[in-house]
Structure of Transferase hexapeptide (Six repeat-containing protein):
Amino acid sequence: MSLSSLRHWAARADHPLARALRSTKRHLQHFTLPAPKLVVKPMLWLFLGLRAIVFFVRGKLIAEPLLKAYCTRFGRGVTAGIYVPWVTGRGELVLGDYVQFNGKLSLKFAASFVARPKLHIGDYSDIGHAVSFVVGREIRLGRHVQVASGVSFRDSSGHASDPAARLAGAPPADEDVRAIVVHDNVWIGADAMILPGVEIGEGSIVTARSIVSANVAPYTIVAGSPARRVGVLPRPGEPSAEAAEAAAAAPPATPQEPPLAKPDAA
């Protein structure tokens, strides 16, 4: 009897031994040990302490130095988390002050389009876990840009649009490799995709899983595939939409008459 036949027999047969095996399996699946706090709390503290030490060593002594070694230029306070960035190809990587990577980073420089592709990330920008950049020409992120996990930036499709050229293994045409520019204080939600030639205006929000194939105006919220405008944000110094609606709905102020003067005493 083969192993698969034996497993099928144990799972389906009405034999006493098969029933006993199934009962034993159920009991083992639900078997638990007691967890008195006097025992498990020190175990947890020990685990957290050891994990913090391992993460510190991985981050400060391995991942961060290797990230900076990839950089053409980097500013103060750049941190890399605990993962060594996955970088392929050659290009210019420029990081501003206090750029923070919070997980795995995938960066591919496609030097078949230009001699030195460029990725520039501005000051105080925050890059989430599993973010990927495919740079054929240039991708530029401004200051205070927030990029959530799983976001993908691609300034090239990676393949020629013409079927014959694609079959021959030719790279995309020059007009298909277009720089991406993300201006200051932009928030890009999880799993969004930013496609070639896109410019995202200052203060905008790209919602999760949006596919951005056209420019985004400043202080705009976009969503969907392809991403379309779904809202407008107040510019600095302007009242928010809620404040404007409340002001419009408020009743007009009633003018107050000046108090009557008291007659002089006789």
The chain is about 25% helix and 20% strand. The chain has a mean pLDDT of 89. Residues 117 and 137 are 5 Å apart (CA to CA). The two ends are 126 Å apart (CA to CA).
